[in-house]
Amino acid sequence: MTLAFFTLCALDLLDGITPNTTEAERVGYIGWIYRCQHPDGGFRGFTGGDVGNSRSEDNQHWDPANIAATYFALANLAILGDDLARVKSTECLRWLKRLQLQDGTFGEAVGLGGVVQGGRDMRFCYCAAAIRWILAGGNSEEEDIDVDKMLKFFEASQTYEGGFANGPFHEAHGTPTSAFAAG
């Protein structure tokens, strides 16, 4: 999903999607992205993790949706001109809420036993804010993420020189600062 995102972004910036792809190809790309949609909300990074009808309590942790893949999938669909009508918005927003951790950050995926796993830094907060905005425009009627808690994490992650770190008491870097600024 990530490679598709950067490829589509580059083509889009160069006004190259329509001249360099056919309508059938774009429909095919959109279809592939929707095949990555997870039944519990969010999107997988690729179709290879989909266990399909064999999915069970014992193996579902091998088939997780991923917060970055979900952001990239939604952005890819928008770039390709999809109306997002087939996105399971309610399930996705509920899944997103499950990924929020006590400190306001977001994990990457729901793993074994329903435990949120993966990184917990500004990048995933950016992905969460973007997913929420794309699907609900900031006006979610579903159970919403705790925006105040996320903002407190942002405040605690700002360093003395004005930049942002991946978390409180860490060194400021360009990536978390740009993720914060974009979010």
Radius of gyration: 17 Å
**In terms of structural class, how would the helical and strand content be classed?**
mainly alpha
Looking at the structure, what is the overall shape?
A: globular
How many strands? 2
Low-confidence stretches: none
Distance N to C terminus: 20 Å
Q: What fraction, in percent, of the residue positions are helical?
A: 40-55%
SSE run:
HHHHHEEHHH
Could you characterize what this model shows?
The chain has 183 residues and is an all-alpha fold. The protein is built from 8 helices and 2 strands. The chain has helices spanning 2-13, 17-20, 23-35, 67-79, 89-99, 122-136, 147-157, 174-182, and strands at residues 109-110, 116-117. The chain has a two-stranded antiparallel sheet. The two termini are 20 Å apart. The relative contact order is 0.12.
